[in-house]
# Entry
Amino acid sequence: MLNERTLLASLALTERLDAAGFALYPAAGTPLDAMCAATTYDTGLAQVPDGNFQTYATQLAQRTSQVDPLMNCSEHDAVLDSIAETATNAVRRHVAFARSVVAPTIQNLYERVRHSVEELSVSSLLGLEVEVWREPKPVLNPALQTELRKLEDVALDDPALSMRMPDLTIAELMELLKSGSGGLDADIAEWVAIEGDEFFMRVWRDFFQQHMPEDSERNRTFTERVTDRFTGVPVALAVYLLARKLLDGKPPEGVEQPLANYRAQLAEFRNQAGGALTRALDRMERALKGGLLVREIAGSKTVVYEPVYRDYLEKGGSNEMLFANALSTPFMMSTADLLERKEALTSRWAAHSALVSTAESNQRYNKIIELLELHFRSQLNEATEGEDTTAQNRDTVLKLFRDCLKHVTEGDLNDLYAVCLKLVCRARFYTTDAERILTGMELARARNPSLSPREAATASIVDYIAWWVASQMRLASC
# Structure
């Protein structure tokens, strides 16, 4: 029922509207219009002595609360209860449909488009990278370096890959890698964790089991494998540690090779792998002493030596300078040369990145728009039930979709889910209030991330009902 408190709460808004020369009226034929018609006391404020709204509110509350003997309640309350029941059932259906039908459709479209966007080729800007070249930690261990230096004078040779060792488990291989020295074994354990089990299983197959290559793979020699510019050092280290340990013990069960041949071949593996490691150590020392920063520039990747790179950054160098250097020819390889041209490299990168990022941003926008339409159509074609499966309605849905898609801006794509929500609601479910309900839930969660889905739905429903009531009001001059 109407009471004085409710009526007085509307006074401030009423006075503001009146001062501005406006009045609110219910739209004809709406539930709000029926509510107002059920207010039996129709007297203007001007008829109240001294314009006393308190007295008017008291009288209005009393008149509208008069009980109709036939209904056993006031007419106002009877109309209110009827409207409330109708509205509650309608809102419940709207919310259930939005959450059980529309929301999964939105999520499905979002996941499809997001997955396709992730597969787009990496931009030429984002594709540029600096990779810090770190030698395996055991190679930097002083005890191992001392051991390796004893092999500096070993003549370069290329042992045959003809050993036929038995299969070993990864646990057995890990035992063979150990040196028995606490400090070195700790470095080995850290390196093993970085490389992963498959790396060591592959080394065992390739070197110790005469592993036959895949059809598309050339059978590389021992020397090619341990001197490979990018994988040679870790491969040589694994072969060295395994061969050394095997030489110190008895042959594993299952080895049918004569003992002398077995030991001779393992010694060759150890010596040639160790020799490759000593040459790698020499390269590291030369790079550090000469300030050689860039180890390799391969396509979009600039590979730098870790110790020299740290020094380069401390002296004011940056990755952006290295990116600009990768776009130049000839490449500069040393810290000194790069720092000498610091200003020119920085300026070049700024100009290049601005130009490329603008072009790529436009291309990316166009591609995502294409993906949105592609997946929306695909999703619609897969629908087997509902109004949008009819040919006539499909045409309407697609027309609405294209109209909505025209208004999607580049900035909108920063929130791809919100874009999918608008497109799905305004095109496929344009006859429902799903967008208002689901957007209300998203806004509620954005304001308070700790809200549960049920609490977010409740907050959205409150806003939705307020909008529903407001939509039944008309503003007019008075």
Remarks:
- Residues 282 and 288 are 10 Å apart (CA to CA).
- Residues 4-86 form one domain.
